[in-house]
Amino acid sequence: MVMSIHTSYMSPVPFDRCGGHPALDFVNTLDHRFDPERRTELLGDYAALLRFAREAGLLDPSRQRVLADEVAVEAGARALRSAIELREAMASVLYAQVGGRDPASADLDRLGRCFQEAERPENLRWVRAEGGAPARLEWQWRPEQLRAPALPVGLLAQAASELMLSDALARVRHCEADTCRWLFLDTSKNHTRRWCNMKVCGNRAKARRFQQRRAN
Ligand SMILES: [Zn+2]
Fold first, then answer.
1. How far is the CA of 195 from the centre of ligand 1 (A)?
2. Contact predicate 45/73, CB 8 Å
3. Measured in angstroms, how far is the CA atom of residue 183 from the centroid of ligand 1?
């Protein structure tokens, strides 16, 4: 896909996380994805990628600061490219799924490669039961991995593969507003959520229906 992209250099407003899952909010960071005139890249640089990973709850603030201060410009740019590659591979598969189509095998290959190339946590950690929470196992990053420029890419790939290889994949939807089509996880009781954000896209659609009724 050839993309013309406007980059947003505005002062950081928090990322919109109405997707309800870090992986879906991540795909939504290419705003107006299907409108070449208005398409806007919200991940303009490595700092924005770090900020997204932190706001999505994947990266803790101290780690964000360390990476922002220590990662060289070129390494950061490389990590950002990998993140965008991962995001676009995810988007091609997810938009096929929400559109009721089978993903193209080339897109699956591309996504599989992104998952395999991403850093992964290497150690298993046993977390003891505490304060009513049951004991559990969790993957843990090695200390040297935590300094890697591509850590945010690894964290995003991990979140994405957890979602996309689970039953929750079937509950991924896209916003019904044609100009939006952001992805979200439909956790509503009857699986009837239609908008990324009722206040934004839902109200706009309601206003449009109201105008149509008045015109008739
Ligand atoms: Zn929307």
1. 5
2. no
3. 8
* CA 149 / ligand 1 centre spacing (Å): 32
Residue 177 C-alpha to ligand 1 middle, in angstroms?
5
Domains and CATH numbers, the chain: 17-128+149-215 (1.10.3300.10)
Nearest 5°: phi and psi at 43? -105, 75
Give the distance (Å) from ligand 1 centre to CA of residue 3.
21
Q: Encode pLDDT of 190-200 as tens digits.
A: 999 999 988 88
Among 130, 178, 155, 175, CA closest to 20:
175
Question: Cα–Cα distance between 118 and 214 in angstroms, integer?
Answer: 54
Per-residue confidence at 54, pLDDT binned at 50, 70, 90?
Answer: very high
d(CA 117, ligand 1 centre) in Å: 32
Average pLDDT over every residue of 168-186: 95
For tokens 């089978």, name the residue: 102
The predicted model scores a pTM of 0.88
Q: How confident is the model at residue 1 (pLDDT cuts 50, 70, 90)?
A: very low
Going from the Cα of 33 to the center of ligand 1, the distance in angstroms, rounded, reads 12
Report CA(201)–ligand 1 centroid distance (Å). Answer: 5
pLDDT digits over 85-123, tens only?
A: 999 999 999 999 999 999 999 999 999 999 999 999 999
Would you tell me the crossing angle of helices 46-55 and 151-164 to the nearest 10 degrees?
50
